[in-house]
Amino acid sequence: MNLHSMLLARQAEGRPLRVGLIGAGKFGSMYLSQAQRTPGIHLVGVADLSPARAKAALKHVGWPAAQLAARSLDDAAKRGLTWVGDDASRLIASPHIDIVIDATGHPAAGIAHVLACCEHGKHIIMVNVEADALAGPILAKKAREAGIVYSLAYGDQPALICEMVDWARTAGLEVIAAGKGTKYLPQYHQSTPDTVWQHYGLSADDAARGGMNAQMFNSFLDGTKSAIEMAAVANATGLLPAPGGLEFPPCGVDDLARVLRPSAQGGRLHHRGQVEVISSLERDGRPVFRDLRWGVYVTFAGGSDYVRRCFREYGLITDDTGDFSAMYKPYHLIGLELGISVASVGLRREPTGSATGWRADVVATAKRDLKSGEVLDGEGGYTVYGKLMPASDSLAVGGLPLGLAHGGRLKRAVKAGEPVRWADVNIDAKNAAVRLRREMERAG
To answer: Residue 179: CB partners within 8 Å, gap ≥ 6?
Structure first.
């Protein structure tokens, strides 16, 4: 890799990559902590609904107050400072910005930001995987047509998985499965913000003191975030979900090659070339030995006697046939690693993962029996969780995408475990995110 040397060259030439960040929450703050230490980067502006909160985040991670004294984006560009405000549209439209990072986590806002970047010719890095799961394939297509780069965010697990898939394929290995680890038990699908902390071993008071958001943490626990992230991976790599969605088999790193192989060979996969998430808990709640809760993996096949022999010679852990093996990364560093995307997009015009087709979808699924007239509360809430489905199956059942399942009022009852359908909910057809999603569905 030579990204760092390329950044040093841009620094020496006085042509830093000019970056604008939208959203100064946890992920954004982690990037901010590293951006100030990275050569060849000028963070020209930060847009957040609360500029005071954004300035506090910048100061918390070490930015000097004097760096935040810019009166405008023009002033920031001229004096090498950083502007902080609440107008994301102004940030995107500024001629002083090359790369925009969306770290909002809000699907509709993310879609609007991508479309604005297409209009103004700005590359876009999507920390906002929620928007990517909702409409990533059509957003990436519109970005290509506009001549800009649309990229998943390095440091987040989908981009790291895409990198591992690309590594294996470029080395001539057949990818059998790829995914990540998480903490999972089947009953977590019914978890709500009222019950989430007991599963993390925390009290509500402890969580509040730590500034933890119950609905956000619940989306990690109830399977929604895993479905969203695996949809992004499937749409970027061509790997496909199983027809029944994610199975979350318990699996430690030493068993990846045995568990993440096709069922015909004794494994847990529906097919070769599958996305899957593994659990750090056995079904009875015991911890998995050497779990991969924080990491990502890829399993692959040798495909020849010679390669299988090489696996043995170089100490790879394989299944009993010797044909399947795995690589994994035990951790991901979230926003601390986001600079890899910034450099890759800005210097090479290469995304660190980007949708190439619509293969997987995340459909809102009832957590309990829902009554007509109830209002859906979206990701991590009390009413629905996100279930991964093949895109063709989602279209066939008319499934409502999880990213649009916030605020819609049910027109009819939905049984627990059943998908919520477009026809079940009053939806504003004029909403920009709804229109774009419907356009993607019509294109298939």
So the answer is: 161, 230, 233, 260, 275, 276, 277, 278, 296, 297
